[in-house]
Structures are given as structure tokens and as C-alpha cells.
Design a protein that fits this description.
four-stranded antiparallel beta sheet, YhzD-like protein, YhzD
Length: 61
């Protein structure tokens, strides 16, 4: 399992949430990240999901 990091921000740069979670691979992590964003009603906010190697898996401005 790998650890992924999801962050969401206000337009002014204020951090809304920062969460780490584990997933089997990048595809599973993307689904988990989308689910977390939907649950927290943050899908339309600025956000990013990064892999343990720093690869951006989800990004929205």
C-alpha cells in the first residue's frame, strides 16, 4: 500500500483540508480521492491529489 495526499484550498490559498490515505495503486487512489472530495463537497474547489512520488493524479483550479 502507498500513501497519497489530498489537499483542497480556498481561492485565496487558505487550506481547507489536507488528508493522507493509503491505496493499492494510483487508479484506486484517484477513486478514493474523488469520493473524499464529493463527501466533503469540495469537488469544485481548488484541489490536488499527489502520489508518493509527487505525481499529480487529480488537479482542479
Amino acid at each position: 500500500m502507498k500513501t497519497y495526499k489530498l489537499t483542497a484550498y480556498e481561492k485565496n490559498g487558505t487550506l481547507i483540508t489536507e488528508e493522507s490515505f493509503t491505496a493499492e495503486n494510483d487508479e484506486v487512489a484517484k477513486e478514493q480521492g474523488r469520493q473524499l472530495l464529493t463527501e466533503k463537497d469540495l469537488s469544485e474547489r481548488t484541489h490536488r491529489l499527489a502520489s508518493p512520488r509527487g505525481k499529480l493524479l487529480l488537479f482542479h483550479v
